[in-house]
């Protein structure tokens, strides 16, 4: 019998592809990169193109590492879309070439190979590559550094991206892969090579959250390893040790209770680690400890030593001197003239964000913010009991003088804001406005004052409380007119928070508030002007019809209308101004409206969505006599994705509050929406599909049986999305799971016959959805199809159980009852086989399912 022919590349093709890759990675600006990319994409249509790429990566030793790595990265991207449709011969060739290269001499090649391996494992979900696991074990046991490092790198990527694969039954293996790998990973904790210690610990850490039985049963070894690595000379390893203790505290606090004092002492010391990332990871422990409701006495004993550390970490670092350029007054031009406008209903101001007004790290979680969050949590646990330790430190910092001590004063003001909720009563006498020459201190004082706003409002019956609230309000209004742009921004953001908390309590002060806001409107430059729009919009949302009085509108509207008329149709500043009108129009609908080109159609659709959300069923009086229905349907079919995205959002909002308005063209709306779920789901189309999916679900629960004509097609599209969840964003996956559930609830007879094809990915997605009413709808659908076709869920029963266990609490009694019936129904149906299913569940899952008495 002739031996099988091994694939070999053609020299001309190999040379041409290598040349293209070399040009693609060349820094030269002469090369037309887009043309090269088109040529590479053209080559991708050739069936064995990916064979060439793996050959270049693995065997083209005469080529530069950069070219070989580029071939590997292109191969990785190609496989994500093309692998399932490739011939088995080509799949087998690629896999056979990758495994020997796990121990490549060059680490860049090894890590690229590891990335490709994890992509293939992700696609195949652990099956179809029986040679992989033995190859990884052989490399790990080889004592050759390159082979151990390559195998560990590939393993770490599998653990990070698809951890469940190693905790699943694999045909041909006597035990789950995780049982084979865990003992070896523990051994690598003692490796003399830092890279192996880091990768091994990182692998195991990935499993703490899901806590498989293999890890649960070997926690003692894991903890021994953590204590062994606690003082590792490599910062990245110490960071992982801290992360492990934090995760264990969050997931299984009982596991660390026997070692609690030692762990707490360790975390306190590492909270002072010279490496800020290590200190940050350690700092997360204190919030986790409090959330886990571990004994507070142990933590109380530690407070005199812990609080000074946290307070020290809340000061700006020594290399933050660039922040002193915040001495930037309004006479200087804005440095950023192209900021994206914020839609005021999703602004970032708020007490929980610990916004330190550092523009460069606005969304970056750092040691300063984490320490403030920890102080906040401690204040909520211990209340005023922490003040005897904390207040002398705060007062000492506040009393410092001189320019060099500004960071100490700023950290003290930040701390006062952080403990506002937990220590309100004890801090009541200390409330005052910081009028420091340093703008960062004035700006953080705005945030601190805003933190006290809602508690002062609660003291409304107390004359002193009302007096203090007025002081806070006037202090913030004065800061709105500060000459420094950073302080202006902080004051507007803080004032918006107070507006939300105070709501109707602001009504007696509306006149003075509007005068200050419109004074700021006339004073601010372009960048901060957008934040004033935000504050005006929030004010309208907070006081609603109280704003609809001639005296107030005469202050508010003329400057806004003048600004509207002043701006050209191409001016991006129309966006935030229109968004401001969205809120004002809720109290005075005649105030907003105009004709726009495509970009402004998007804003108009968003404005109408805001009206629908704000007015609820009251939107009926605004739209009943308009041709909005026909215009909206046209927008849903527009060629521009951003128009369709906003159109489907409005469709969903109308479905919720005024579904009868869509009724005359209901089927057309549903058909157009369903078409978005099977288009090319990339780029902006993902957001379109997300909104269309959500709108279908909202309509379904309102019009019920009338969605029947599109149920089968939509369910097929949603099942496909869920089966390839890794290729789309989290929001689309969650909305797909919810909408599928709603359709299943309404027409279980149409959905149930096909359920075995999508129950597993559906349940995986449902397990990630937070507890809310939409999730209840989805589970009504899950229970409904199981009742119609119970055998369709048997093969995925473990995943159904895990989805049910994802609930913290089902508040709806009928959903709770239905879920219980499903579980007990399967238990009765399966008889002795139920025990096999139960044994496959992890201890935390069993613990949560016990509430249903199964």
Automatic annotation (TrEMBL):
SUPFAM superfamilies reported in the protein's UniProt record: ARM repeat (SSF48371)
InterPro entries: ARM-like, ARM-type_fold, HEAT, Importin-beta_N, Importin_beta, TPR_IPO4/5
Example GO BP: protein import into nucleus
MF annotations from Gene Ontology: small GTPase binding
Record SMART domains: IBN_N
Pfam families the record matches: HEAT, IBN_N, TPR_IPO5
Residues of the signal peptide: none
GO cellular component: cytoplasm; nuclear lumen
Comp. bias (Basic and acidic residues): 332-341
Keywords: Cytoplasm, Nucleus, Protein transport, Repeat, Transport
PROSITE patterns hit by this protein: IMPORTIN_B_NT
Subcellular location: Cytoplasm; Nucleus
Residue stretches making up the Importin N-terminal domain: 36-104
Residue ranges of the region described as Disordered: 324-351
Main location: cytoplasm
Keyword Transferase carried by entry: no
The family this protein is said to belong to: Belongs to the importin beta family. Importin beta-2 subfamily.
Protein name listed in UniProt: Importin N-terminal domain-containing protein
């Amino acid at each position: 019998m002739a031996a099988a022919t091994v694939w070999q590349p053609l020299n001309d093709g190999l040379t041409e592809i290598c040349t293209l890759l070399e040009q693609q990675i060349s820094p030269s600006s002469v090369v037309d990169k887009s043309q090269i990319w088109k040529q590479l994409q053209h080559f991708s249509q050739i069936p064995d193109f990916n064979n060439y790429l793996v050959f270049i990566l693995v065997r083209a030793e005469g080529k530069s590492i950069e070219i070989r790595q580029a071939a590997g990265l292109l191969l990785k991207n190609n496989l994500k879309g093309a692998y399932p449709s490739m011939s088995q011969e080509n799949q087998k060739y690629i896999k056979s070439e990758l495994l020997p290269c796990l121990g490549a001499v060059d680490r860049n090649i090894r890590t690229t190979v590891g990335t490709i391996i994890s992509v293939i494992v992700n696609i195949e979900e652990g099956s179809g590559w029986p040679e992989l696991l033995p190859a990884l074990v052989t490399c790990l046991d080889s004592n050759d550094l390159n082979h151990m490092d390559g195998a560990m790198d590939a393993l770490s990527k599998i653990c990070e991206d698809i951890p469940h694969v190693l905790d699943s039954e694999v045909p041909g293996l006597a035990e789950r892969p995780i049982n084979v790998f865990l003992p070896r990973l523990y051994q690598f904790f003692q490796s003399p090579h830092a890279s192996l210690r880091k990768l091994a610990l990182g692998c195991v850490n990935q499993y703490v959250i899901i806590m498989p039985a293999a890890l649960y049963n070997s926690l003692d070894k894991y903890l021994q390893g953590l204590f062994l690595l606690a003082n590792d000379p490599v910062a990245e390893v110490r960071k992982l040790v801290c992360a492990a203790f934090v995760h264990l505290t969050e997931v299984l606090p009982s596991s660390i209770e026997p070692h609690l004092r030692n762990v707490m002492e360790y975390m306190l010391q590492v909270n002072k680690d010279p490496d800020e990332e290590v200190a940050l990871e350690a700092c997360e422990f204190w919030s986790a400890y409090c959330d886990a409701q571990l004994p507070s006495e142990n933590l109380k004993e530690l407070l005199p030593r812990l609080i000074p550390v946290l307070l020290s970490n809340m000061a700006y670092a020594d290399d933050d001197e660039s922040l002193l350029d915040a001495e930037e007054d309004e006479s200087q031009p804005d440095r950023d003239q192209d900021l994206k406008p914020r839609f005021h209903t999703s602004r970032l101001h708020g007490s929980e964000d610990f916004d330190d007004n550092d523009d460069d790290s606005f969304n970056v979680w750092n040691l300063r913010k984490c320490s403030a969050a920890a102080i906040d949590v401690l204040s909520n646990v211990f209340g005023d009991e922490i003040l005897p330790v904390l207040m002398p430190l705060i007062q000492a910092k506040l009393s410092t003088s001189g320019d060099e001590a500004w960071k100490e004063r700023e950290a003290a003001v930040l701390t006062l804001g952080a403990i506002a909720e937990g220590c309100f009563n004890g801090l009541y006498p200390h409330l005052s406005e910081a009028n420091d020459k340093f703008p960062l201190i004035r700006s953080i004082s705005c945030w601190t004052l805003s933190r006290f706003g809602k508690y002062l409002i609660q003291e409304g019956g107390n004359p002193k409380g009302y007096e203090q609230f007025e002081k806070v309000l006037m202090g913030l209004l004065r800061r709105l007119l500060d000459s420094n742009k950073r302080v202006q921004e902080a004051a507007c953001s803080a004032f918006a928070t107070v507006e939300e908390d105070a709501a109707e309590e602001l009504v007696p002060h509306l006149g003075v508030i509007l005068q200050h806001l419109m004074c700021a409107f006339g004073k601010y430059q372009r960048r901060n002007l957008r934040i004033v729009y935000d504050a005006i919009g929030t004010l309208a949302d907070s006081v609603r019809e109280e704003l609809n009085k001639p005296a107030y509108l005469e202050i508010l509207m003329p400057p806004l209308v003048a600004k509207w008329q002043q701006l050209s149709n191409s001016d991006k500043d129309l966006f935030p101004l229109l968004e401001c009108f969205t809120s004002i129009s809720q109290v005075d609908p005649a105030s907003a409206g105009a004709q726009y080109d495509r970009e402004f159609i998007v804003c108009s659709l968003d404005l109408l969505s805001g009206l629908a959300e704000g007015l609820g069923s009251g939107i009926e009086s605004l739209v009943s006599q308009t041709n909005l229905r026909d215009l909206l349907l046209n927008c849903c079919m527009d060629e521009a994705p951003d128009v369709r995205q906003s159109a489907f959002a409005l469709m969903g909002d109308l479905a919720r509050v005024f579904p009868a308005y869509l009724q005359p063209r209901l089927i057309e709306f549903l058909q157009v929406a369903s078409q978005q779920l099977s288009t090319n789901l990339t780029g902006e189309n993902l957001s379109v599909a997300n909104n269309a999916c959500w709108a279908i679900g909202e309509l379904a629960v309102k019009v019920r049986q009338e969605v029947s004509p599109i149920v089968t097609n939509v369910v097929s599209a949603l099942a496909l999305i869920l089966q390839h969840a890794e290729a789309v964003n989290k929001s689309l996956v969650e909305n797909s799971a919810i909408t599928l559930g709603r359709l299943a609830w309404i027409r279980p007879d149409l959905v149930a016959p096909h359920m075995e094809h999508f129950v597993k990915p559906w349940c995986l997605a449902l397990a990630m959805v937070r507890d809310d009413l939409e999730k209840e709808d989805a589970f009504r659908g899950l229970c409904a199809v199981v009742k119609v076709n119970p055998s369709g869920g048997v093969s995925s029963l473990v995943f159904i159980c895990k989805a049910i266990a994802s609930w913290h609490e089902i508040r709806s009694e009928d959903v709770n009852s239905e879920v219980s019936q499903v579980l007990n129904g399967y238990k009765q149906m399966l008889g002795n086989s139920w025990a096999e299913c139960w044994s496959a569940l992890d201890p935390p899952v069993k613990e949560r399912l016990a509430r249903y008495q199964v």
